[in-house]
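Good morning,

Attaching, inline, the backbone tokens for the sequence recovery test we're adding to the shared suite. The designed sequence is right after.
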């Protein structure tokens, strides 16, 4: 199926590894032009260079910066619009933040978790909607988590922020819908990739126990892969999903707890 993404410009935050990189690669393979952003300059440049060899340097834009900062994000969107092309899609994929178990979370950690997981999504979506709505087209995608769908015992800031992100997407979908701009969410399950949390657990001293847990709790009995999130994201971003907005789509192997 041709998703109709050829030459459409898609901005992916958190693009240098894991789920973000999986989305970047899938969109490039579908013919999109991709703007990559992340905080780590070395990893971002290495991945951009690798992908440029495959898809062409003209298909890629990159910039490092703090994607929780309004001025940084607004400047990135302005530069993409001026020098790379009109934004069709954005992917808010900034997440995780250290948080202890339980409710004894200090104020700084709480605010940091909200800023990382929730504020970053709002800041990027606001910047994107400002340029998409006047054109009456575009697609905003939040990368949430199944931790935001119900209580799973995850760190308090993470699950709470992801649940709020899901609600934010539904409210924005109502606001943006009349202009033809869509806002959706993908809620990944347990995705494994190099240097990610799940790889560290799977290869750690409790790796066998985690493998048994995955087989017990996930009907497909395995971890997910970044490219599987990428495939779902490319479809939801694309014109093929033109009647989907305000949706929260789990991509989790069937896990429900």
């Amino acid at each position: 199926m041709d998703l109709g993404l050829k030459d459409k410009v898609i901005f992916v935050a958190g693009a240098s590894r894991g789920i973000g990189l999986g989305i970047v690669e899938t969109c490039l393979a579908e013919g999109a032009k991709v703007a990559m952003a992340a905080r780590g300059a070395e990893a971002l440049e290495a991945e951009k260079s690798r992908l440029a060899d495959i898809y062409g340097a003209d298909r890629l834009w990159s910039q490092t910066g703090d994607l929780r900062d309004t001025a940084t994000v607004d400047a990135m969107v302005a530069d993409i619009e001026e020098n790379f092309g009109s934004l069709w899609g954005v992917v808010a994929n900034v997440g995780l933040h250290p948080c202890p178990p339980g409710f004894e979370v200090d104020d700084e950690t709480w605010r940091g978790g909200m800023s990382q997981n929730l504020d970053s999504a709002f800041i990027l979506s606001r910047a994107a909607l400002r340029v998409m709505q006047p054109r009456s087209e575009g697609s905003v995608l939040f990368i949430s988590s199944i931790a935001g769908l119900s209580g799973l015992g995850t760190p308090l800031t993470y699950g709470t922020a992801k649940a709020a992100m899901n609600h934010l997407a539904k409210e924005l979908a109502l606001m943006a819908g009349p202009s033809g701009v869509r806002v959706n969410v993908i809620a990944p399950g347990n995705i494994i990739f190099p240097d990610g949390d799940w790889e560290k657990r799977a290869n750690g001293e409790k790796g066998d126990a985690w493998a048994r847990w995955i087989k017990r709790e996930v009907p497909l009995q395995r971890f997910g892969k970044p490219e599987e999130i990428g495939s779902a994201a490319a479809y939801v971003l694309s014109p093929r999903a033109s009647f989907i907005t305000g949706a929260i789509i789990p991509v989790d192997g069937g896990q429900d707890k």
